[in-house]
Each structure stands twice: as structure tokens, then as C-alpha cells.
Amino acid sequence: MAAKLEEDSSELYERCTNAALNSPEGRAKIFGQDELLKMGVVDTAQALLELLQGLMDAQLVRLMQMDGKICYALRKKDDAAKIVTLNDDERMVYNQIENSGTNGTWTKTIKQRTNIHQTTVTKAMKTLESKKLVKPVKSIKNPAQKIYMLHHLSPNEDVTGGPWFSDGELDVELIAITAEAVIHFIAQNSWKTVYIKREPTPETNNISADGTTKKRKRNDAGDIEGAHPKSRRSGGYETQISYPAGWRHYPTLSAIHHFIIEANFLKEGGNLAESDLQNLLDVLIFDERIERIGNGYRTCKGVYGPTEAMKNISQGRACVDPFP
After folding, report:
1. Which residues touch 45 (CB under 8 Å, ≥6 apart)?
2. CA-CA distance, 302 to 289, in Å (whole number)?
């Protein structure tokens, strides 16, 4: 009987794990009793409760309450094996941190909710950190204080400030480098580059004060709008001309976002939402580096890179907020 109960408990845990991994929520998925019964491991609610009790005793499942209903969440097997070794105080502290999710919680809040002495909370926290069950995270709202969350979780944007922040501070260098990459990507599909051959012009003579004749040469293409700064030649110059009206190949927000993610440009590029990238594009529009054309973007004529301010930031020579 005990062997059958253990076998069914293991089967239920595996089915729950597969269902969680195949869901949008992943391991954070919450299960209700009806959903667990539909998995077909047991037929009755009473039998299901027996299996769940065994899994909770092994710390593989935790009991929760949402909207007044009892529900259940999974724990990883390696985490469960560590939780089993905790004493009562350590487990109470762990449960408070676990319940805080990706928001994390303060040690002061843990102390208030558990009625455990601060010294005991601090000691428990050290144990949980050493077992890699929890981790401290710096919050942008209170940089001087640490909050704690489960070791395997990533903090939400309310805590970190989003992908443009690093260790609780705005990463202006990352923003500048990303802006430069975005501009170069957009520039590839913004304009047609053509070579304009300079027609020879007659030289005109100037008479100097001493009566000698001086030849005046025509200026180079340095002041011609759209001329590439690295592509001027003595016999002509390269310039940019617009694509025909209705051109549909200007990079869109989604295309630029895909480029950033696929290029592994950001350390945690998967956390960069299109809305985050939109903020950067809006700044580049304001700085007159790019402009919106229909649903896409192109560089402003004559733009081949970031502003001098952005260059200075990327080279560590300035520290300003690009998102004022």
C-alpha cells in the first residue's frame, strides 16, 4: 500500500512538472484541485489529498491560497532536498521569501510576519544563502537596503528598473552601446548610397595685390549634405538618396528587437521587451538620429552613427541620463 502511494505521488509530481514546463507560466504555474484530478493519477479528491500530503511532507509541493481557493505549486527536487534539512525558524523565513515571488521581501517584513527575533532571522538568512535557496537583490527604490527572493527567480522590473539598469543603477554605457548598434542596423536599410561623379569645372583666376595670378580650386564635398564622411573622393563623392515612395523595407520595431535578441547583444537580452526598446528609439528620434517612416524607422539623412554625447558615454567620458 505504501509503495503504491509513493509510486502514485511520484507520477503525479512528474505529470505536474511536465504540465508546468509546457505552460506559459513555467515552473511558477499554480494548480487547482480540479486540474490535478484531470491528470488521471487518482479518481477521488480524498485519494488526491493523500498524494499531495506525501508530496508536501517531502517539500516537493507547497500549499497556497488564491482568491479564497486552495491551490498548489511545485518545488524543484534539489530545492526540496535542501528545505527538508531546515529547522523550524529557517523554514518560516524561507516560506516568507518564497511567498514574495519576484517582488522579494525585506528582512524587516519577515521579522514582523514571523515574530522571530532579528538575530534569528539574520542567522536563518545566512543559512538559506549558503544553501543557495535565496539571494539578496538590490532594489532601485531603496539601493541601500537588500531584498531577498528565491535563488532561481529573476526580479521584476519594479525591483531592478528594467533592462537598462545594472545593480540598481541606470547603465548609461549599455544604453549608448545599444543605441550605436541600433543606428547601424537601421542605417543598412535607410538610404540608397550612390556615387556622384564631379564634372570638371573651369578654373578661375584671381589677381592678387602684387599682380600675380592665383588659381582658385573648387571646394571638396565636405559640406555636401548626405556625403559619407569616409567616402569622399577627389573625383566625386558618395551621397544618400531616398528609396521610392511606399518603400516597405525600413526596419520595424519588431525587426530591430529581433536583431538585438538574436545577436546576443545584451547580457540578458531575453528580458528586453519591445516597449523597452521603443523608449530607446524615441530618444534617438528626439536626438534626430533616426526618424519614423510608416511602420518602420530610418536614419536621418547624413547620420552614420550616434551623437557625440552617446560616443562619450560608451567610452566612459560622460555620465548623464539618456532617458531624462
Report:
1. 33, 37
2. 9
Q: Which amino acid is at 146?
A: K
Q: How do residues 159-202 score in pLDDT, each as one tens digit?
A: 666 777 766 667 778 888 888 889 989 988 888 777 777 666 65
**What 3-state DSSP class applies to 303?**
coil
Please check whether residue 19 is in contact with residue 4, taking contact to mean a CB–CB distance below 8 angstroms. no
What are the residue ranges spanned by the domains of the chain? 2-77, 86-161, 169-314
CATH entry, 86-161, from 1.10.10.10, 3.10.20.30, 2.30.30.40, 1.20.1560.10: 1.10.10.10
3-state DSSP assignment of residue 157: helix
Report the alpha-carbon distance of residue 254 to residue 278 in Å, rounded: 10
- Distance CA(82)–CA(128), nearest Å, equals 9
Residue 231 C-alpha from the chain's centroid: 37
Helix (H, G, I), strand (E, B) or coil at 150: strand
Residue 206 β-bridge partners: 214
267-317 pLDDT tens trace: 654 578 888 889 889 989 988 889 998 889 988 887 766 555 555 544 554
Q: Are 309 and 320 in contact (CB under 8 A)?
A: yes
Domain 2-77 in CATH 1.10.10.10: yes
Q: Which three cell numbers stand for residue 309?
A: 554625447
- Those residues whose C-beta lies under 8 Å from the C-beta of residue 304, and which sit 6 or more positions away, are 187, 228, 229
**Cell for 199?**
564634372
Instruction: Say if 2-77 and 86-161 have the same CATH topology.
Output: yes
Query: What does the alpha-carbon distance between residue 41 and residue 19 come to, in Å, rounded to a whole number?
Result: 14
Q: Are 276 and 236 in contact (CB under 8 A)?
A: no
Tell me whether strands 134-138 and 30-32 are parallel, antiparallel or unpaired.
unpaired
Instruction: Report how far residue 278's alpha carbon sits from residue 282's, in angstroms, rounded to the nearest whole number.
Output: 6
